[in-house]
Every structure is written in C-alpha cells, then in structure tokens.
Amino acid sequence: MKTKVRFITMYSIALLTCLSITVFTSQAQEMANVRRAVIVSPEIGEKTVTFRISAPKAKLVRLYGSWMKSFDSSTNMLKDSVGTWTVKIPTPSPELYTYHFIVDGMTVNDVNNIFLQRDGVRYLSVLLVPGKTTSNYFEANQRGNLKKVWYDSPTIGSNRHMYVYTPYGYETSNQNYPVLYLLHGGGGDEDAWSTMGRAVQILDNLIEKKLAVPMICVMPNGNPGQKAAKTLLLDEKLYDRNDPAFQNLYITSIVKDIIPYVEKNYKAISNADSRAVAGLSMGGAHTISVSNEFPGTFNYICPLSIGVRTITPEFESKLQGVKKAGYKLYWFACGNEDFLWEMAKTTEASLSKNGIEHTFFVSPGGHTWANWRIYLNTFGQLLFK
C-alpha cells in the first residue's frame, strides 16, 4: 500500500512538473515572439508615413522631423499594449529629411532605421521620400566609386584627408576626365557632400542618364586645422581667423597641393577647361576666393548660398582679373529665404557691374541641404560642355 501511494505521489509530481514546464515554455515563447517582433520604421505608404519605437517604460514620446516648421510642431505618439509607440503622418513632399524621437524629453534616433547621416558631430535618422525631386538621390544602376584618400599638403604642413569620386567605368577606361572640386560649408568636412549632399548618387544618376559629362569629383576637408573629419580622432590645430595668412591658406592648398595630387594620381585632364570649383556657404566663399586669387585655374565657377558682406575696390579688381583670364560658366545660387540672401544679392549686383557674365539661380527656401542638393543636380548638368 505504501508503495502504491508513493507511486501515485511521484506520478503527480512528474505531471505537475511537465505542466509547469509547458506553461513556462509557452510564456517564454510568447515573450520571445514579442521581443522578436519586427518594428518597421519608417514605413512609407502611398499617402502616409508610419514611425514606431519601442519604449515600454516611457510616459511621453513625440516625433520631430525636418519637414515640420518648428520644434513646437513635434507630434505625440500613441503607445500600444507591448510598449511600442506609433504615429502616422501624411507623407511629406519628396525630399530627404531627418528626424528623431523625443522620449520623456530625451532626443533619440530611430534604432529601427539603418539610414543615418552624419551632420558634423551629430548622427541623424533619415527619411527619403521618393518623387521627382529625389529621383537622383537614390542609387543609380551604373555606380561609380568613392575612395578616401590621404595626400600631403606642404602648404598647410600636414598629411590630409579627402574623398574622391570616380564615375562608372573609370577603372577600365582609357580616357581622361574633367574634375569638379566640390567644397563643403562651415561645420562640415570631407564627408559632408557625399553623406548629406548625396553627391555620389546625384552624379551617378546624371551621368547614367547622359545629362552630365562623366567626371571625377574631389571633396576635400576645408578646415585647415583638421587633418581629417573629427570621427578619425586626430589632433587639430587652432588658427586665428583674423590672421591674413589664414584667410588664403586652404584655397592656396587647393591649387598648390590638391590639384597637383589629383592630376598626378588620377586620369584627370590638366587644364582650366576641365576644372570646376563649387561650394556651399563657407565653401561658396572658398569658391569665390580661389577663383579670384588664382584666375584662370577654373573655367567653371559655382558659388552657392554665399555673398560678400562689403564690396571693396580690391574685390572688384579681382573680379576683373577673373574676367580677363576668361571662364566658361559662372553659376551663382541662393535661396530667397536664406539668411545670406541680402549679401548674395549685393554680390550678384557686383558681378553684373563688373561685366562678369553669370547665371543667378534663385530657389525657394533657405540655407539648407535641400537647396544644395538641387543646386548640384542643376549645375552638374552644365559642367564641361
């Protein structure tokens, strides 16, 4: 009798254990399924875009995007039973936007979105809305190469970093190519045009569509105190911006160091007809300065979103030097809401006064990458023709 009771007791324990394991396994599997659930963000629909973020313990989550007029326009998100916050908005007009979440007051990138762009010392999540404006911002079928290059700059006194784009077919081609020297703005570095400006995609698409001449594009670091972008963690040198020697240090290095390096190490055509210089903001100032100080070096000159604060006799004399040396295109652009708009108009008036035949391309909007991508997409079709 005792043996029978013992058998029943052990049987009951075993049964309860099996049931417990089954329940635990089922609960663990359910939790694992919740954890493994794929969160898609952003999800671009025909008329709406949906953003999602998992933050089970958060009390308030908001979305802010660059398509909004101001930070006060940020939108509240709704939380579901498993802690995923969601918001659905009307699809913004085609453009490349950046956005972030505000989780209980803290700015957070979209961890479910692998499309990030670096803006100086910040990384931002990207929303790229397809459409006519952005058609050249996506990958082309025929893609060139972007290489990170170190070169010696005796002018500045350091080994420095730049990006060099070569068009599709460059490696196997026997031809030589014209070169666009594309300069970034303040706060940027050699990575800016390829990352935020989508320069590689724009050039690839224009060339593939036969809207632009196949060209090399050189994107240097315009900060003479930097050997490379801050992400490389190299030491930097501080310069006194009021020192006259500093003013032309970088543009001199373009002509004395960068151009010789490119024309020695790449299949580049070595004449002014095959050289273009363009730049935004600070890079626009560099564009004006390098063409003024070294007239006849570039026959395609494209300053963007910049202007000269005071038009001096010395400045106008240098414009006369550009005119005398000759050029094929002077393409000047600015947004009519740009904070430099008045300076740009003053500079454009000086170009006209001094007989510098030019195009003044005026766009809506301000001092933004949305404009600078449009400018590259536009003047890129005019170069070397």
UniProtKB/TrEMBL annotation:
Gene3D superfamilies, alphabetized: alpha/beta hydrolase, Immunoglobulins
The keyword Membrane is assigned to this record: no
Residues in coiled coil: none
Cited CDD domains: E_set_Esterase_like_N
InterPro entries to which the protein is assigned, alphabetical: AB_hydrolase_fold, Esterase-like, Ig-like_fold, Ig_E-set, Mycobacterial_A85_antigen
One family name in Pfam for this protein: Esterase
Keyword annotations of the record: Signal
Keyword Nuclease appears in the UniProt entry: no
Signal peptide: 1-28
PANTHER family: DIACYLGLYCEROL ACYLTRANSFERASE_MYCOLYLTRANSFERASE AG85A, ENTEROCHELIN ESTERASE-RELATED
Protein name as annotated: Esterase
